[in-house]
Design brief:
Layout lengths: L3 E3 L21 H6 L3 E7 L8 E5 L21 E5 L15 E3 L6 H9 L2 E4 L1 E7 L2 E5 L12 E3 H5 L13 E2 L12 E2 L14 E5 H8 L5 E5 H15 L3 E8 L13 E5 L6 H14 L8 H13 L12 E2 L5 E3 L13 E2 L2 E2 L9 E8 L10 H5 L2 E4 L2 E4 L10 H10 L11 E9 L7 H10 L1 E7 L2 H13 L10 E6 L10 E8 L7 E10 L2 E3 L37 H7 L6 E3 L8 E2 L2 H8 L2 H8 L6 H8 L31 E4 L4 E6 L5 E6 L4 E7 L8 H6 L14 E6 L12 E7 L7 E5 L7 E6 L17 E10 L6 E9 L21 E5 L5 E6 L5 E2 L11 E3 L9 E5 L4 E6 L13 E7 L16 E16 L5 E18 L14 E7 L25 E2 L11 H12 L3 E5 L7 E2 L4 E3 L2 E8 L7 E3 L6 E8 L21 E5 L7 E6 L11 E7 L2 E8 L14
Parallel strand pairs: 2-14, 2-20, 20-23, 23-24, 29-34, 42-43, 51-52
Antiparallel strand pairs: 1-56, 3-13, 4-5, 4-12, 6-12, 7-8, 7-9, 10-11, 14-15, 16-17, 18-19, 21-22, 25-26, 26-27, 27-28, 29-30, 31-32, 32-33, 33-34, 35-36, 36-37, 37-38, 39-40, 40-41, 41-42, 44-45, 45-46, 46-47, 48-49, 49-50, 50-52, 53-55, 54-55, 55-57, 57-58, 59-60, 60-61
Helix pairs in contact: 5-6, 5-11, 7-9, 9-10, 13-14
């Protein structure tokens, strides 16, 4: 059943101009809708709350409090902050959780800080990370690096005011650079900061001096009076939290007519000014202390509220009379909340939405439970359903009460089965006053089993601190989906092995996503799992519920479950993992240990600072990163594994690379947990050889472990991997001096490129590492561009017969994150480059960039795609490059000589095509590598001939003309759900098939950039129409006069090209994606599916090739077929022998392609012939 959440309060989301391709799986609007923390306060209003206590006098903001003992006031005014630890002590040099008060840009906090002394909210500071400016969470232990600060509440209230002297505006990521940072945007809708993680409390130094001071002034106040004050202060100082209130009924005894349990007097609502005023009026003027303490009965009623079930105790309150008949206690004052958002027809309306799955209860009590057994039988009868299995309550009493057992149930079981996902409640307890000391063991156990914390408070200051401490510990909620990608074995270029490896991940609304890698096989053009069972469900096209993937335990039927089977299950039981990091001498690989990491980073403090954790916690965080279950996370069966269940992170964009060593098969893949993994496929089982975690990802460990549900996605090794394999003697076995190297970028993970030598698959070593800080690479943006391997005349050692060519890598300058803005036509400041480096050393051999490069680039847009490479003269050396950019342009680079700035034949670049524009509809962006096909195309040429009599006639002739066909499709990978751009797929006929220098002023001049109108419109498939011979000839002439063709993808649907095209036997295969049709005022809490399509068209004519419909074989061919719901990768060629049944004959190799999860039979048989090409290569 689809779930929808109407969002009148979140209408601004539709104007957000920043996006990411993870919106395919997790909507940013969903994250924001689920981000509001929901808290139900259960306030003890029993008779003992009238008890008066002599306590410290309350805080007076007009008084200037003295320094606490043994300290001297700092000369400057500071604000201190806390993230759930001990409240900071002011004026001490050892307390670094502070910053100058003048830097406070959270305008919403200022009045509360003046009047209350504290404020709780989501706070951010600006910092450069991975060479980009971002608003990040405050450090746990050190505020000295805070220079600019702001808060979520300013954005929610559309308040642009910042710190004194700072420009007004709303915080924004990724704009500007270190020299000219842009912290703010004037338009609130353009603020793209993710407000997630723990709430932070700011304190004035004056308040903390009062809190810790030895002030001997005291006053007498009732417990209820102090509770009211604390609740008022906390609600007023935490506007981003939605609060509700529950109190006790009188609870005369445990009989049915004794007014048992408690009632919801204020349901959880958004804290608008009106709702906050109503709630505080209840607390201040209507709640009175009478009756007993039914803790368990009241918590049981709250569970019914969260579950959306019938009211049980909410209407049970009773009047209590004196012996003379006069009223002692009047029932239902205040009354239960009967607002339609809280209850309808005597049934609760759950505060859960399908976009949120966590609420919190803070129970404040001053004593042990009394008259609290009426709900015992109801608690014992609790049950829920999980994946079709009924789960019954099995808890036990603690100190004779079910409170702790009920809290455990609420924290672990699904409270609302009417919604998708699992809805739970965590329980926090506060023992208030000395009167609660007898209840402390029960309250501690309740908090422990209920997933919360226990606090003790004896006065209003401590109660306020306890409430704030509970809020700092809270986090929002999440939901999940599934997707996959595929890679086939790539060692043998004429045949592939029949194993297919799927990288899988389970999206979530937090930074940490579960990943997996599974293996299937291709048999008779079908994918199968163990025991030959079909891998796919014939109806849905998804992995079957009945299939067991290879490597998984027999009959485990893990096919449709991302978290089960595969490498994920293997890693959960692997306790002897080998994990390297670049923390050895001079950045070499060394085993990841705390000691070695400290040496590499310069000491324990430096390591802790890099990881943003306390020094004492470094070891625990490193152990977590290495997979150890330091948080004692349980499996579904209740057991606690040694390794945490989600040790294998998500391979969101990293495609598995299969390497055949001749004697073994290895699979290399990166994940956003920040590790590159090497696995050995042992046939029926799999094992991890090693993992490599670059030290630049140490600062990702903390947010990954915290995994706050509305935190932004954390990226690690997210790029595709390229391999170089040198089998010196050609025996198919990698040994001796043979070489295997791998190269990878990080995509969204940063600007780095790494190269590893994995010639010995058990012992990797680092060849090199470069990033934007490396000399010559200052233009590098995020490293999206997969390196392309080749050879160049620039990298030949020696001359004549002794010349040796060494491999090089080509890659683009990457992605400028400022392009995440949807505004078209704005020049980038990063990524406008192409680099060529020595594959062995990483040495920069040549670069194309606007400044400081070997060749000057005049483009203004970043180049995130792989570079198309071409050896035009067959000498084994790459002499031409093609690439698209994010401005819709296509560029050609000619490299005709061995010296880039050669006086006769310099390397030159010109714009081959210009297809982009400056409006949303024409904002074409190229993220995919152009495919290059050397081909002959039959042209129909019409010429005019004048005879000797002066008569002119037209002659039509046909000729085969050579072209370099350049195929490329547009589509914004950073905004895959956008629908306002009219994307296209292009085939450019580049007639300049000879690599040569082109100039702007002298011959040969660079041709003018092709425009869309220079290509023929193939959108309506003109050659497929019924034409007369004359009409067809006219069409052929018109097409021949154009420089290629284009196909408009379906306008208004957001259809966009998703990957590189491939061409096989004159047929172009390319994939597209149509995003789901999202209603602008509705949040789909489970992201609706889009449509992934595969096109197959004739290279020259653009006509349909196949009838994809197996049920109607006589139907006309169509250009495209729906594959599944995915944003598809490039079609993968898989070639396996077709068994003809005769063991004496060599079977023909039959080629098919895999797209998404489907094998597409494309009806060709590969025929191989022997050719000879001699290239001296470096050994």
């Amino acid at each position: 059943m689809k779930k929808y959440l109407l969002i009148s309060l979140l209408m601004f989301i539709s104007t957000m101009s920043f996006s990411e391709d993870i919106e395919l799986y997790v909507s940013e609007a969903v994250k924001l809708a689920g981000a509001k923390t929901q808290v139900l306060i259960i306030l003890d209003n029993s008779g003992s709350m009238t008890t008066e206590e002599t306590v410290k006098i309350r805080y007076d903001p007009t008084e200037n409090y003295p320094a606490i003992p043994n300290t001297t006031k700092f000369s400057s005014e500071y604000l201190y902050y806390n993230k759930g630890d001990e409240i900071p002590k002011p004026d001490t040099s050892t307390e670094n959780r502070r910053f100058l008060a003048s830097l406070n840009g959270c305008d919403s906090a200022k009045s509360s800080l003046i009047s209350k002394g504290f404020y709780t909210a989501h706070i951010r500071r600006y910092k450069y990370k991975n060479n980009t400016g971002q608003w990040l969470n405050l450090s746990d232990s050190n505020g000295s690096n805070i220079y600019v600060l702001d808060c979520e509440d300013d954005v929610l209230s559309n308040n642009p005011n910042n710190a004194d002297g700072v420009e007004p505006g709303f915080p924004v990521n990724y704009l500007g650079d270190k020299n000219n940072p842009e912290y703010f945007t004037a338009d609130e809708s353009n603020s793209n900061v993710v407000w997630s993680g723990t709430l932070i409390t700011l304190y004035t130094d004056n308040y903390l001096r009062w809190h810790y001071g030895n002030n001997t002034q005291e006053e007498t106040r009732s417990r209820m009076e102090m509770a009211r004050e604390s609740i008022n202060d906390v609600i007023n100082s935490a506007p981003s939290i939605d609060f509700g209130l529950q109190i006790f009924n009188y609870n005369y005894g445990d009989s049915s007519n004794h007014g048992n349990g408690g009632r919801i007097v204020a349901g959880i609502k958004e804290m608008t000014d009106e709702n906050k005023t109503t709630l505080l009026d209840l607390v201040n003027n209507e709640v009175n202390a009478r009756g007993n303490t039914p803790l368990c009965e009241t918590l049981y009623e709250s569970s019914l509220y969260f579950s959306g079930k019938n009211i049980e105790y909410g209407d049970d309150d009773i009047n209590i009379y004196y012996n003379d008949g006069s009223i002692y206690y009047t029932k239902n004052v205040p009354p239960r909340d009967t607002d339609p958002s809280v209850e309808l027809s005597n049934k609760y309306v759950s505060p859960f939405s399908s976009c949120s799955n966590k609420v919190y209860v803070i129970l404040i009590t001053d004593g042990v439970p009394t008259q609290d057994h009426h709900a015992d039988g109801k608690v014992e009868g609790l049950s829920t359903v999980d994946d079709g299995t009924t789960i019954n309550f099995t808890g036990s009493k603690y100190d004779g009460n079910y409170l702790a057992g009920l809290a455990e149930w609420m924290s672990n079981q699904d409270l609302n089965t009417q919604l998708s996902g699992k809805q739970t409640a965590d329980i926090y307890t506060i023992g208030f006053s000395d009167g609660a000391d007898d209840a402390a063991p029960l309250l501690k156990e309740t908090a422990r089993l209920g997933g919360g914390k226990y606090f003790r408070a004896t006065d209003s200051a401590q109660l306020t601190a306890a409430l704030v401490g509970a809020l700092e510990d809270l986090e929002p909620s999440n939901d999940s989906l599934t997707s996959a990608s595929v890679a086939a074995n790539n060692f043998d270029r004429t045949e592939t092995l029949n194993s297919v490896y799927y990288a899988m991940f389970q999206p979530d609304n937090g930074p940490r996503w579960q990943g997996n890698l599974k293996k299937y096989k291709v048999v008779s053009n079908k994918q199968v799992g163990k025991h030959g069972k079909p891998a796919l469900d014939v109806n849905s096209g998804h992995f079957s519920e009945q299939v067991t993937s290879f490597w998984s335990p027999d009959n485990s039927e893990d096919g449709d479950k991302v978290s089960e089977g595969g490498v994920a299950e293997m890693l959960r039981s692997k306790i002897n993992r080998v994990i390297y990091s670049d923390i050895g001498t001079a950045g070499t690989l060394a085993l990841l240990t705390e000691t070695q990491a400290e040496i590499s980073l310069g000491g324990s403090l430096e390591l802790a600072t890099e990881m943003d954790v306390a020094e004492d916690d470094v070891g625990t965080y490193l152990n977590w990163a290495m997979g150890k279950n330091v948080d004692s996370v349980k499996l579904d069966d209740g057991t606690t594994p040694i390794m945490r269940p989600d040790v294998f992170g998500d391979p969101l964009h990293s495609k598995p690379l299969v390497i055949n060593y001749g004697t073994s098969i290895r699979v290399v893949i990166g994940t956003n947990a920040g590790a590159l993994h090497m696995f050995e496929d042992k046939g029926a089982t799999v094992d991890e050889d090693w993992a490599f975690m670059p030290k630049e990802f140490f600062n990702n460990i903390k947010p990954l472990r915290e995994n706050y549900a509305t935190a932004e996605k954390v990226y690690g090794i997210d790029g595709s991997i390229t391999s170089y394999i040198k089998d010196n003697n050609g025996d198919g076995i990698i040994n001796g001096t043979d070489k295997v190297w791998v190269f990878f970028g990080l995509r969204r993970g940063g600007s780095s490129y790494y190269a590893l030598d994995i010639s010995n698959p058990s012992t990797p070593s680092k060849l090199w590492h470069i990033d934007a800080a490396s000399t010559g690479f200052g233009e590098l943006g995020q490293s999206w561009s997969q390196p392309k391997l080749g050879y160049s005349k620039l990298n030949i050692n020696g001359t004549g017969n002794s010349a040796v060519a060494a491999p090089v890598l080509f890659f683009g300058g990457g992605y400028d994150v400022a392009k995440d803005s949807s505004t078209p036509g704005i020049a980038d400041v990063k990524g406008r480059a192409i680099y060529m480096v020595d594959a062995a050393t990483g040495t920069l051999k040549w670069s194309l960039a606007p400044l400081g490069a070997d060749s000057t680039f005049i483009g203004t847009d970043s180049i995130p795609s792989s570079i198309g490479i071409l050896d035009s003269d067959g000498d084994g050396m790459i002499d031409r490059l093609y690439t698209g950019d994010t401005g819709g342009n296509v560029w050609r680079v000619d490299m005709p000589s061995a010296i880039a700035n050669d006086s006769n034949d310099p390397w030159t670049v010109f714009k081959l095509a210009e297809f982009g524009g400056t409006t949303n509809s024409t904002d074409l962006r190229f993220f995919n590598e152009p495919s290059i096909v050397r081909t002959f195309i039959s042209e129909t040429i019409e010429t005019e001939v004048t005879d000797e009599d002066g008569k002119t006639i037209k002659i039509v002739s046909h000729q085969e003309k050579p072209y370099d066909a350049v195929l490329i499709g547009s589509g914004d990978r950073s905004n895959p759900i956008g629908i306002d751009t009219n994307d296209r797929f292009f085939m450019i006929k580049d007639e300049h098939i000879k690599t040569q220098s082109f100039y702007s002023a002298v011959e040969p001049k660079a041709p003018p950039a092709l425009l869309k109108n220079d290509l023929y419109d193939y959108t309506d498939d003109p050659f497929a129409k019924t034409l007369t011979s004359q009409e067809r000839e006219g069409l052929e002439i018109a097409v021949s006069n154009k420089s290629g063709w284009y196909i408009d993808l379906v306008e208004g649907t957001g259809e966009k090209s998703t990957a590189d095209a491939i061409v096989i036997n004159g047929v172009v295969y390319f994939t597209t994606f149509i995003p789901p049709n999202l209603e602008p005022n509705v949040i789909h809490c489970e992201q609706p599916n889009g449509t992934g399509l595969l096109y197959a068209v004739d290279l020259a004519l653009g006509t349909a090739i196949y009838n994809w419909n197996e049920t109607t074989p006589d139907a006309e061919p169509v250009r495209k077929v729906e594959i599944n719901e995915q944003f598809l990768g490039a079609p993968t060629l898989i070639v396996v022998p077709n068994d003809d049944g005769d063991p004496e004959t060599d079977d023909d190799a039959v080629g098919n392609i895999i797209v998404g999860r489907k094998i597409i039979p494309v009806g060709f048989t590969l025929q191989t012939m022997r050719t000879y090409l001699y290239i001296s290569e470096e050994q």
